[in-house]
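Discussion board: Methods & Data

I've been asked by a reviewer to show the raw model output for two of the constructs in my manuscript, not just the figures. I'm not sure how much to include, so I'm pasting the format here to get opinions. Each protein appears as its amino acid sequence followed by a line of discrete structure tokens. Is this the kind of thing reviewers expect to see in a supplement, or should I convert it first? Here is construct A:
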Amino acid sequence: MIKNIAFDFGGVIFDLSWEGAVASFKRIGLADAEVRLDRFHQKGVFELLESGQITPDAFRTELEKMCGRSLSHDEVLGAWLGYVGGPVDTLKLRRLDELRARGYRTFLLSNTNPFVQSWAESPQFSTEGRPLSSYLEKCYTSYEVGIMKPDPGIFQFMLNDAGIQPSETLFLDDSPANIAVAAQLGIQTLLVEKNADWRDAVEKLLA
């Protein structure tokens, strides 16, 4: 029986736009953004940021070198928010509320960074003026845990910290690699097509 549900962030809760991110990073001067930015798992200095190995200021300094000019915090934030493909679907957020009201423990398990998370934890995240954390019991982010999916360590960290069993936990992600690792750990999984509406599929698994 499923008692817990963990959600990926980009591509599952909010619509993810790799193309938008490439365009926004190019606007601040990152000419080879399409090479440096990844659709699922960042690399280089972007991975260092998302794995919590460098601070936002250190990341900005490295990005300035790549762009060849000074950058403000807001410019870097705006570049990262290019990944956000539009307003967050209110129907998905309402379903998160409903699942909690029905007694399910709900979590975020995401590869993300302090820039994107600062937006997620602001009133600008939803049309209701609520931050992401108000819809979930707890958010597990790669930069805070210090481990990135698909490393099994981040899944195990969530299971241990929340005190939940893999067999009673459902995990939604749009990355086949992340889904495969979760399944190997005994977690029930749902591979979501990027930006798709997963509500009916979840209900079928809960029935």
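Construct B, same format:
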Amino acid sequence: MDLEKIIRDVPDFPKEGIIFKDITTLLKDAQAFREAVDRLVERYSGEQIDLVVAVEARGYIFGAPIAYKLGAGFIPVRKVGKLPAETIREEYELEYGTDAVEMHRDAIEPGQKVLIVDDLIATGGSAAATARLVEALGGDIVGIAFLIELAFLNGVDKLKEYDVFTIIQY
């Protein structure tokens, strides 16, 4: 199945000059959604994965079923101030300014094998920040997986030390 053809381009969103890759067209297609999840699971099915860590919000859409199919736990990474218990925080650079993500301080035990999942990698800032959170808690990153890579933004360059897998590249 050619998943790339199912993803809709939305011109000038969220601002003029941007072509937004809208995955909602893939998500509403049961066969395409299953195919996307299965391809991501297949890549890591031979690995020992204890936890799937997914980035808010669309990363959760893929992270939760991947965790389920791999028999792993699921850890949400959220924007600052959204998690109820004690957290650790990691900042990352945006085009203009910074942002940050958080994870519960007790989310990962040292030595646990972790797969990081998100829907899309653009500049790589949030994925690299998530990797730093995982490592700060002692997690061993098995891989970082994305449905989509915007290759022209070179985000994977920030993740050179990891096994990065993407299904679709633009």
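Answer (T.O., handling editor elsewhere):
This is acceptable in a supplement if you add a one-line summary per construct. For B, something like: The first helix runs from residue 24 to 27.
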